[in-house]
Specification:
It contains three helices and no strands. It has one domain. It has 93 residues and is mostly helical. Helices cover 81% and strands 0% of the residues. This is 2TM domain-containing protein.
């Protein structure tokens, strides 16, 4: 019975961590959608050089990585890559 409680608690903590990560991503996305247009507005009203693209691209890349992490998507290794590698290393030993 105690083991089931520990497993349920672990599942709850992992689910809560996932929700917090997704919530953080949406907060970051909202800030991006507000700040970048303000920077673009300031940029176009002050100079002809499009400097706002630098923070837009940098923050955009970070936002993309945050989203991929929040939704546990890894296009480079796939879903089962880590599990396959663990099994592979265990068989070698």
């Amino acid at each position: 019975m105690e083991n089931q409680d520990v497993n349920a608690n672990n599942k709850y903590l992992k689910a809560k961590e996932k929700v917090e990560n997704i919530k953080g991503f949406y907060g970051n996305l909202l800030a991006y959608c507000i700040v970048i247009p303000v920077l673009a507005f300031i940029n176009y009203n002050t100079t002809s050089f499009a400097w706002f693209l630098f923070p837009a691209l940098g923050w955009g890349f970070g936002l993309l990585m945050h989203g991929l992490s929040a939704y546990e998507y890894n296009p480079f290794f796939g879903k089962d890559w880590e599990e396959r590698k663990i099994k592979e290393f265990m068989q070698k030993q």
